[in-house]
Backbone:
């Protein structure tokens, strides 16, 4: 069973930083793209950033220049460094990964971690 577990969320003030981590565990034969998404109250889940297995990166316009996604393939972990946080970044942040758990590649999701930015 493949699991993704996020950590690093919390309550910060506007302008401060947070670093989210997402570690994959279980029977993992291969990992493709990994990414971060977020969902604010009353809104749909939206893409924040993705990183491919080869290291190609994509950011949402709203976070480009403030957030940095990275991955450590040896640790099967993806990170999201969030700087200059704004109140509008408040949301539950979810990581996902395109993972081969033995039955082909499937998208797995973490349980989410709350990020709250006070202004």
Residues:
């Amino acid at each position: 069973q493949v699991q993704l577990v996020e950590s690093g969320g919390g309550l910060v003030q506007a302008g401060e930083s947070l670093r989210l981590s997402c570690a994959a565990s279980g029977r993992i034969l291969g990992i493709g793209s990994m990414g971060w998404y977020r969902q604010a109250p009353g809104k749909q889940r939206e893409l924040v950033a993705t990183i491919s297995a080869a290291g190609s990166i994509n950011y949402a316009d709203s976070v480009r220049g403030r957030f940095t996604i990275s991955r450590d393939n040896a640790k099967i972990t993806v990170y999201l460094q969030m700087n200059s946080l704004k109140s509008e970044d408040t949301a539950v942040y979810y990581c996902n990964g395109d993972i081969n758990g033995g039955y082909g590649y499937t998208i797995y999701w973490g349980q989410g971690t709350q990020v709250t930015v006070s202004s």
In short: The longest strand covers residues 30-39. The chain has a mean pLDDT of 97.
